[in-house]
Amino acid sequence: MAQPREMSDQTAPTPDARYATTRDLGQARSALSDQIVARAALGSEGASGNTLERVILRDGRELIRKEVSRKWDWISRATRDDGRVVEMWERGLFERFPSTIDHATVAAEHAGDRWSVFMHDVSAHLVPGDRRLGRTEVRHVLEAVADLHLAFWGERFDELCALEDRYNLLSPPTGRRERERGERAGELITRCWEHFAELVPGEIATAIVAMAEQPALLAELLDACEPTLIHGDVRLNNLGFSDDRVVLVDWGERTGSAPAAVELASFLVFDAERFDVTRDEVVAEFRSLYGDRHDEKALELALIGGFVQLGCHFPLPIALGGGDEARAAARAELAWWTPKVAAALEKWSPV
User: Fold this and answer.
1) What pTM did the predictor assign?
2) Class of the CATH-defined domain 128-348
3) Quick check: 51 and 45 in contact, CB under 8 A?
4) Do the strands 50-57 and 114-119 form a parallel or antiparallel pair, or are they unpaired?
5) What is the dihedral of CA 76, 79, 81, 84, to 10 degrees?
6) Measured in Å, how far apart are the chain's first and last C-alpha atoms?
7) Cα separation of 78 and 314, whole Å?
8) Structural domain boundaries of the chain?
9) pLDDT (tens digit, 9 = 90+) per residue, 158-194?
10) What are the tens digits of pLDDT across the range 95-104?
11) Which CATH class is domain 22-124?
């Protein structure tokens, strides 16, 4: 059996001149907002409503600042995030990251009921929205993420995103709650789950919706598997390439303890249609990277979790008004997922 990818001289954490450590920053790490001397708005971040701006600090550094609050960010509300990225920063977790990952984070700090993340501008390195990834690039991402997982293998971080919170993100309860608040996201989530039930065979849809209504059912099974630290939202919108490193941004909100396969399942749901390699080949690559540490049960549970967390992602183009073409595209993606999830449910269904 293949041996797992291990930390090497090239993947072990090493000092990076661009990133001051928590020890280097000292007291200043919690007060970068007070050092801003100029700023320019960059708009909001997607559907979350979080604000982005380019700032200049008194020491001349030019950074990107993201401000987040549950007041306007429905994703933070759904995942019960009160600034996990600040917890990560203050605990020094970023300092332990493998050098194969460029996390871009300079500092994170609380300010009342909101928090700020300061980052280097890595926008030039991020994957463009119309770009596809070939086999080599997909493997590069999987290798870098495996380096992260192996660096934190066996560790739990109860203060970060729990599995139950992760699977609650796009759940029917979240849809209902956000719809009552007047959030468009709530309406879309609700409609997407209705379309999901139309696209997926009845018994499977019933089981998945039951777990989406009560995410703890699946979370308890996955929580018994070997944990590590996962980014939680590895997708092309958050990815890029800089020299031999993988750029990975948007830490904290869904970063937490989970089996490594949970990361893979999310990556496949969001982006596999933009890979020039099959889903089965990506899964095989994943297995080979972890070798004897690979847990097939965790993988099968994670694939179920892909439906629980992101089942309403497949019908999104339909809910947005797409017609027959959108419905055909959703069925094409589900053609791979549905039999995999059905087989996993036969063995591990908690409902």
Assistant:
1) 0.89
2) alpha beta
3) yes
4) unpaired
5) -120
6) 34
7) 20
8) 22-124, 128-348
9) 999 999 999 999 999 999 999 999 999 999 999 999 9
10) 999 999 999 9
11) alpha beta
